[in-house]
Amino acid sequence: MVKKKLVLKRKIKKMIRQAMYTIIIFLLGMISVKQNPKMKASINQKIYTESPNYIKVRDIYKKYFGNIIKEKETTQSVFTEQLVYTKKEKYNNGAKLKVSKNYLVPTIESGIIIALENNKVIISQINGINVEYSNITISNYKLYDYIEKGKLLGECKSDELYISFEKEGEYLDYQKYI
Predict the structure, then answer these.
(1) I want to staple 96 with a disulfide (CB 3.0 to 4.6 A). Which of 16, 91, 132, 139 is the partner?
(2) What is the pTM of this model?
(3) Is residue 77 part of a domain?
(4) Please, what sign has the CA dihedral across residues 143, 148, 155, 166?
(5) How sure is the predictor about 51, in pLDDT bands with cuts at 50, 70 and 90?
């Protein structure tokens, strides 16, 4: 009983310490942005016009501060697929894939949803590549949700799926990734 209390106290202290580090870093950042207009402009540029790599930020945070929120227990998923198509051809900056009607679209790689619109979603993958999936009805996801490789992203609205790959502002050859 005493041992359990000590373990619980340590966990609580660790969580409080992590929360305090986060608050201190946030406050220092806010003070420096308030004092330096150039830094404010730079941060606005990075956040609003470029696509930040949220995976790197998460990994750095985990490395130095650990996890504040306990990660969910792993469960067996019913849907774990790979992208399946019958035909692919170049389309704009990416590819048009011929899929079955009402095809359930899986993610190619794990990542964070950084853009979510009516018929399209952009995922910042763990490998630093942003993937845009178009012509789909998105499942139950919100902006900045983390989605794992092979999980259901949404349903294709017709028998065509549009996909493109981008890294650091440049479109990549889709043939390397699908």
Answers:
(1) 91
(2) 0.60
(3) no
(4) positive
(5) low
